[in-house]
Design a protein that fits this description.
The protein has 8 helices and no strands. The protein is an all-alpha fold. The protein has one domain. The longest helix has 28 residues.
Length: about 210
């Protein structure tokens, strides 16, 4: 169990780092150099990981019997520098979950072809690949939940009319409290979606 947790934690760390770098590059490609100037367009985990989101929360979620979840330090960007003022923030927000979905697809298809006999892989590698798929699907689904400061909230806010700006401010003010409540009491509601996506990609269920 301890070895499984260590592998899961390492996979999570790598996945959240890639997630944040994707945000930074999405902003950079739209004209914002904030992440680049701060040295955040790097896969060096030291630049991205934090104690609570990257270590403590994953440990607690694992010990409580739920799926392992966590985050890294958000990559900063200036929305006013983005060329696309209407959808730019949503594009930056979606880049993180999108890269997690791409990672899940890549390793999931490897599992599907290996299990289908197209090529042979060791059971240990298939198990690690399965963990990569699972953790990245969890990250993608979790981050698309529309609760600030998660990416899903920024995607939702991009379609808000200007008249609802005060509502956004109120949601962001209490977002962290709502998010912690969601994690410990309602995050299990994401499991059916994760299981369905895992089976669709890999060809077998959890």
């Amino acid at each position: 169990m301890q070895i499984d947790f260590i592998f899961s934690l390492l996979i999570l760390m790598f996945s959240v780092v890639v997630h944040e770098v994707a945000h930074g590059y999405a902003a950079y490609l739209q004209g914002d150099n904030t992440a680049k100037n701060l040295g955040r367009l790097t896969l060096n985990p030291i630049k991205h990981l934090e104690w609570f989101g990257s270590i403590i929360l994953p440990t607690l979620s694992y010990m409580l019997g739920g799926f392992i979840i966590g985050w890294a330090k958000p990559v900063p960007f200036n929305p006013y520098n983005l060329r696309n003022q209407k959808w730019g923030e949503a594009i930056v927000a979606f880049a993180g979950p999108f890269i997690n979905i791409c990672i899940a697809l890549f390793f999931g298809l490897i599992i599907r072809f290996a299990v289908g006999g197209v090529f042979l892989l060791s059971p240990a590698f298939i198990q690690i690949a399965g963990s990569i798929v699972l953790i990245n699907l969890i990250l993608a689904c979790f981050n698309l939940v529309p609760i600030p400061p998660l990416d899903g909230s920024k995607i939702l806010f991009s379609i808000f009319p200007n008249s609802l700006t005060p509502l956004r401010a109120n949601l962001e003010a209490y977002g962290t409290t709502i998010l912690i409540f969601f994690i410990f009491f309602f995050s299990s509601s994401l499991l059916p979606v994760v299981r369905a996506a895992f089976q669709l990609i890999t060809g077998f269920g959890l």
